[in-house]
Amino acid sequence: MSDAVETDILVAGAGPAGLCAGLSLARAGRRVLVAGPADARPTARTVALFDGSVRFLQRLGVWDALAPVAAPLTVMRIVDDTGSLFGVGPTDFKAEEIGLEQFGFNVENAALVAALEAALANEPAARRNEELVTGYAFEDDGVTGRLSRDTRIKAKLVVAADGRSSPAREAAGIKTRAWSYPQVAFTAILSHRQPHNGVSTEFHTREGPFTLVPLPGTADAAHRSSLVWMMHPHSAKRLKALAPEKLTGAIERQSHFLLGAISLERAGAFIPIEGLSARAMTAQRLALVGEAAHVFPPIGAQGLNLGLRDVAHLAECLETSKPLDAGDAAMLAAYERARRADVGSRQIAVDILDRSLLTGFLPVDLMRGAGMLALSAVPPLRRAMMREGVLPQLGAPQVMRQGKHQLPNNL
Prior knowledge:
It is a single chain. 34% of the residues lie in helices and 30% in strands. It has eleven helices and 21 strands. The model is unreliable at 404-411 (pLDDT under 50).
């Protein structure tokens, strides 16, 4: 067996959260190795990056590469399509109401991963290894990670960005609470006849949200959007069996022909909807970020935005305390405190909203309808809700906050 490669921080996982972790922690003055297979293959998955996430990517020097392939989200429209007796009309949330030109931008996952990989390749303090991390030995003074080709990595800290089944989390003995929903999500990239005008539209149905999110046009298609369609498993089974032209017809009908005639540019997968919450976000010489720590339904674009807040907070904790040891216990405790309320509150909110759509219980419909009516009729309440969803101040690291603030020196 070859001698171990030494580094300060081993990042396990090379999705967007892992690549961002590698880049930001290297910028915070640490030697970082990011391990995991590269994957920039075109898929039907996109991510809506909110204002704070865009600020973070700007500070990391990544945003200039993404801006040309990102579509601004200026309005978020919610349409009650449940058939409830207490349904209200469409409710528009406009970025200008909270002093923004847009809430954020929608970008394809593959483009985000490619931009992060390119930035990481040019970061002197970061190294990249495309092997999987297959095992860990946690000790008082460090941790050794074993890679799939028997390479050994000696580090002071492991950042687990290795997904919902996180081997790092399992090796550290962190328990989880996991659950499932009676739903499947279908993703797709669409081209369509009518322009989206920067409006993201979320139809709330009895089977879950049907969400159309703007994408930039291309030489082949002037008007494009991404789709996330949540439905019952039996509906997913029927949809899977449809020929492409029948499938586009079903999408047009479910969207109430909002975007006119639709073409299926790229169909994605049918993904079972699950939830997961780690009992802790840290252990000895380990920090969890992204889906290694929290998983919930694709509602309100909270998933990756929350994961990027994990990453930014971890970099901030390291930069603020400046421990000689990157796996310092006090630093990890500060990270745990910084993330708990933000993660927990959003997980609860998304869970309640999703489950409220699935029930036909009249009191629940009444409460949901009253809530939407209040948001429509009371501008201060609507603005407060938008700020909390897109510009959280209490739960956000400094680098993501709006307005003048002191940024960590090396970010």
